[in-house]
Design goal:
The chain contains 8 helices and no strands. By secondary structure, the chain is an all-alpha fold.
Length: about 210
């Protein structure tokens, strides 16, 4: 059946992962050469990215892919792609851990592990966009998609939203930003512009400068 679910936030989230991995991969290479500013950017940026990527995969495995499976009314063979998504997450997780371990070691070098993670995540996101996202639009109803997004909003809470949306929208153009902010009620759109984004940018100059 056709649906009108809007995957703008999901696409923007993928773009944010790519953005951060590119920035952190470059920072790791400079940190290897002894650049202390790059090392600080890497430390702060990794903390943000690792949390967001880990949370995203948990939501997909625990909530999103089960929703797609329950909504799909055709041949179950078409859902093999969801098994692949979970298998790829199982590859991403140790790659994430390898970067964290390297950064926790005072003498560790995160450049190699970050290169590996960057490659693994880039391939996974492309696969998800090519095959898993079309399943969402093909079978999940707007009502169920809205309920799914409402659960995510409740789990974030105000504190989480105040961190998530400024991070998500860093570097996005005005059109994409307005589409993403459209999922928020008017008071929270105001909070984003007046409080959340300026405060986040002030605390994370290493990421936005």
């Amino acid at each position: 059946m056709g649906t009108t679910v809007d995957l703008t936030v999901m696409h923007t989230l993928h773009d944010a992962f790519r953005r951060d991995l590119e920035v952190l991969t470059r920072a790791a290479a400079r940190a290897r050469e002894g650049d202390p500013d790059a090392a600080e950017r890497l430390r702060i940026g990794w903390s943000v990215l690792a949390d967001q990527l880990h949370h995203h995969h948990e939501v997909e495995d625990d909530q999103l892919w089960p929703l797609v499976r329950a909504s799909w009314g055709r041949s179950p063979d078409a859902l093999d792609v969801l098994d692949a998504m979970e298998e790829e997450h199982a590859v991403v997780d140790p790659a994430l851990a390898a970067v964290s371990d390297a950064l926790a070691d005072a003498y560790g070098d995160a450049a190699g592990p970050l290169d590996r993670l960057h490659a693994v995540v880039r391939e996974h996101l492309a696969h998800e966009e090519a095959e898993a996202m079309p399943l969402i639009t093909a079978c999940v109803s707007p009502r169920d998609w809205g309920a799914f997004n409402a659960r995510q909003a409740r789990s974030l809470g105000l504190k989480g939203a105040a961190e998530f949306f400024p991070w998500l929208l860093q570097g996005q153009d005005d059109v994409r930003t307005e589409r993403v902010l459209g999922v928020l009620p008017a008071p929270l759109r105001w909070a984003y512009r007046v409080r959340w984004e300026p405060r986040w940018a002030g605390r994370h100059r290493e990421l936005v400068g």
